[in-house]
Amino acid sequence: MPHQRKSIFFLLLLLPLPVFLLSLTVGSYHIPFEEVLAILVGGIDPHPSFSQTQIYRDVIFMIRLPRILLSLLGGIALSVSGASLQSVFKNPLVDSYILGLSAGAGLGAALAIAFLPNFVGLTQLSAFSFSFLAFMLTYFVARDRGQASTVSLVLAGVIVTALFSAALSMIKFFTSPEKLSSVVYWLMGSMAVSGWDEVLQSGPLILFAFLIIGLMRWRLNVLSMGDEEAKSLGINVERDRLVILLTTTLMVSSFVSVSGIIGWVGLVIPHLVRMLMGTPDNRIVIPISASLGGVFLLLADDVARSLTSYELPVGVITTIIGAPFFLYLLRRRGGSTWRQ
Amino acid sequence: MRSKPLIAILALVLIVISAGLLLTLANVPGETQQSSITIQDMSGRNIVLSLPVSRVVILNSYWNEIASTLGVSDRIVGIDKYTLSSVYIPKTVKERPVVGDLFSGVNLETILSLKPDAVIMDFGYGKTADIIKSLESIGIPVICMYSNNFNDQLNTIRLLGKVFGVEARAESLVNFLEIRHSIIVATASKIPDSERPTVLLCRVEKDGLLTAYGNSTWGKIVEDTGGINIALRNFPNQAWPKINLETLLAWDPEIIIIVGYDSLGLQSQLDLIMKSNVWNNLKAVKESRVYTVLIGSRTEGAYLDWGPRMLIGEMELAKIIQPKYFGDLNVDVVSDMLFSTYYTQ
To answer: Are B134 and A193 a contacting pair at CB < 8 A?
Structure first.
C-alpha cells in the first residue's frame, strides 16, 4: 500500500471511535458534555449527592449505548455483506437484499405480527427464520447439477423476492388496520425501542459472520475474478461461494430481524470505500466498509433519535441520504464505480 | 364599654386562627397518609405508583380524552402522534411534546426528559411489548390499558380516576354513561326476533370492496341495540371481514350503515355507491335505509369512538336500527349534557 493510502486506511479504520463518543452525547434528553465524560470515565462523580446522575447513567447505559452498539453492528452487517456479495456476483448493483432476504424478513415479521401473540422477540425470531428460508429457497432454486451460477442466483433471488412480496401483500390486505400499521412501520426499519436484548440477540452472530468474511477476504478477491480463473488458482469456487452467501445471510438476517428493513447502506458504503481507497481489493474494502458502514448507520440513527421529540424511521433516513449520494457517486465516476 | 368590641374582635381573630390551625393539622395526616398506591392495570399486572401522580405521558388519544374529561388534562406532559388529530382533546394537551406512537415506537429519551410519574398506553399490538419493556428498564411505571366493549370502557374510566386520585369525578362519569347504556341494552333485549332487522355496518373502500364491522366493539353494538349484525353472523371470528359486491347482494341487509371519519370521506363513499348499478338492487337502497354515521375523533359530531362519546354513538345506531323503540331518544340533549359537564376544563 502506498504511504498516503496507508494513512487514509488507518484514519478511516479509527473513525468509528470519535463518532461513537459523539453519539453518546447526542439525544433529546439533555446531558452536559462533561457529565457524559465523567460517567464514562466512571468513579468520578461530579455531584455525588445528585440523584440526577442516576438518570444520566440510565440514559447513557440503558438507552444510548445499546442503540449505538446496535447501529455499529448493523452498519457492519449491511455494508460488509454488500461488499462481499458485490465481489461474489461481480456486480456493483448487488446488495444483501438481492438474495430475497428483505422480502423474507418482511414476510416473517408480518406473519408474526398478524397471527402470533404479541410476545417480545417473537417477531424477530420469525423475521430471522424467514429471511434464512428465503435465502435457502433462492439457493436451491438456482442450483443446477450441483452448481449455482451467479446469474441463476440473481434470477432466483428476484423470483423468491416476488413470491414473498406477494405473500406479504396478501397478509397486509387481510389483516386488521391496526396490524397493517405495525407491518408497514416494521418495514420502514427503526431501532427506537431497541435495548440490550437486541444487541445480545444479534451481536454475536454478526461478529461471528464478520470474522469469517474477514478471514476469507483474499478468497473474495479470487472469486471476483470469475469462476474459471478462481478454479485455476485452486479455489473450490462452489464451496467458498456458499460459505460467503451463508455468512452474509447470517449477519444481515440477524440485524434486519431486530431493526426492520434498512436499505442502501450495503450499496452506498462499499462504493464509497472503493472510491476513497482507489481499489476493489477486499483486503482493504472489507475492513473499511465495516468501519464506514458502522459510522454511516450510527450517524443516521443519531438523526433519527434526536432531530425531533419523537422518532424518525432510520431506514427512511438512510434511503434519503443514500440514494442521492449514490447518484452523485455514479455521476462522478462517469456511470461506473467498479474498477477491477 | 369601649373594650367590648375590642374583646369581640380579639376573640374572633383567635377563633379564626385556631380554626385555621385545626384545619391545617387535620389536613396534614391526610396528605402524608399515602405516599404510594398499588393498582391493577388492564393487563392484570400490579403497578406501584408514587403519589401524587402529577405528570403522565399518555400514548393513545382516547386515554388522553378520558383523562381530560376527568379534569386532569394539566397533568398530561407528553402525548402520541395520533392525539393531535382529535378535536375532542383540549388544545393545551395537544401542545405537549409528541413522543412518538405505538406503531413506529417512542423516543425514550424524550419521555425520560418529561419526568413522568407514569406512562399510560394500550398493550398487545404494534411495538407495545418492546416499549413497555424499555420504559420499565429505565424505571418508569407503565399502566397498560385495554378496552373491547362498553363495560371495559367504564372500567378504564374508573382505573384512570384511581390513578389520578379523582375517583368521585370518574364515578359520576361512569354513572352518567352506565345508566343510559343499560336502559338501551335492556330495552333492546326485549325486542322480539321478528322485529330485528339485518344490519351491515361498513366502510366502502376505494377499490369498491367493503370492510364490514363483524366481531368488533362497534359490530357488537349493532346487536346490543336490536339489530342482527349480518357480518358478525357470517364471520363470527373476524373483527373486520372484507366482502365484495356479490357477498353484499347475497346478504342483502335491510339496513346499511356507512361509517367515515369525516363528511368528505362519507361523501366519497356515497359517490362510489351512486356510480354502481349493483347497489340499486339492494333492499336497503330501494327502501331508503342506507345511513351514514361519523366515527372517530377527527370531526365535531363524530361520536362512535373509544371514550365517553361511545354512548352517543350507541344512541345514534339505536335510533337508526330500531326507530320504533328508540325513535324518541334525544341524542342532542344527552350529548349536550355530556359535553357541558365533562368536556369543559
So the answer is: yes
